[in-house]
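Handout, page 2. Input:
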Amino acid sequence: MTEDTELLRQYTETGSEDAFTELVRRHLPLVYSAALRQVRGDQSLAKDVAQTVFVDLARKAQSLAGRELLGGWLYNSTRLAAFNAMRVNQRRIIREQKAVAMQETAEQSDANGDLKLVLDEAMGKLDSAERNAVLLRFFQGKDLKEIGAALGVSEDAARMRVNRSLGKLHALLTRRGITLSAAALGVALTSETISAVPAGMVLSIAQGALATAATGTATTLTIAKILTMTKLKIGIAGAIVAAGVAAPLAFQHNAQAKLRVENEALHSRITELEGVAAERQRVADLQAQRGEAQSLADDQLRELLRLRGEVAQLRADAQEFENLKAAHARLTNNSVVRKALATEVRVAKLKQLMKDRPNLVIPEFYLIGEGEIRGAANEFDLETEDGVHRAFARLRNRAENQFAILLQPALSRFTQSHNGQPPENVQDLATYFDPPIDPALLARYKVLHFDPKLVKGGWSGGWVVAQGQPVDYIDMRWNVSPVGFGPESFEPTNQN
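Output:
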């Protein structure tokens, strides 16, 4: 079987559609199944998420060569695309006021049913190596030899990594109320994570992704698909605005041009069908006048009725297009909407930078929320290198502050049980956290000793726990003691 890296090379170097289609065929079950879980079983929305993921793959194929396992990248991209799709869909529902907010029920008795609701969120908290091990073993059904080859380790090392990763995933799920044992979790992952892909979806996804990559935007494909539906409702205007979030505002001109083209084609079709219907009606009237109405064949009568119905439907659709255009114009000319779109573009850019610049990201990022990301995106100019560095420095500072809030009580509990002495190894603090944390988070921290005459974080005990090295030149160091914590420059005096 041709390796994923070779298929990517063929596509990026020669534009081979066959190579790209094979990649879609190979990984679509994983992507579609993950999307289906995360959009709560909405098959249509899951297909849109899958389309978005493979459009991204077609556009970014060259930058992915040699970075990481393709399956891991696709899974993570699916999680982000599904999150965005659910957010856009929920906003549309609220805006249209045609559905009640979706609520998760707490009365689920089926452990596997609950598992589907929280699995992908827990998978997102694994690091890349752990997630790849779980994906290869349980989602894609690879044996340990194949996993070792894919990860570049021995078969025994692959077994240890899979077991360790499954154990961490089990711990994360246990905190969310999933009561499966580790062994039962492995069985559930193997049997429940991959759904059957609808017939013909591989080809449609591949062709759609290739066509969209050629035009340079995924939003155009989404808008065109919306505009060709025959049962359009006026609320689709909200979906058009939401779809434009990830594109510059200049794209609105292209969407309006497509509306005009579609509307003209629709009116042309109406005129044509009206002419056919009128001619058939004239013949029927002549036959009726001659007393020959009964000679008109049944199939001709049915065809006449069908054409009349189609004309009526097309007239209704034409009116809906006019309403849609008016609503779209009102929305895109609204200053509040324009500002919201600009903000979403900045947030999307920062999130993309978080994927493209892993050297600026720290593990503690899981502690910050959407509000922090939105604030950093709005405050700093992400078009300049200095702005990017300052935005990430702010996010790191907020994340490390949240981690200090968890670290301080853990350090207090440790010193109470060790006669006030600092830990010899910072990793020893892991068992004192409540709730528990991944010990790997402490790898960036160490014990710093300083002059006891100084006070750091409300503490004069002569030592604190702090980050070992800055990620960037503008970072702050958080000093955490058993009684408090606080930031300072990475060049403090009288410490070693």
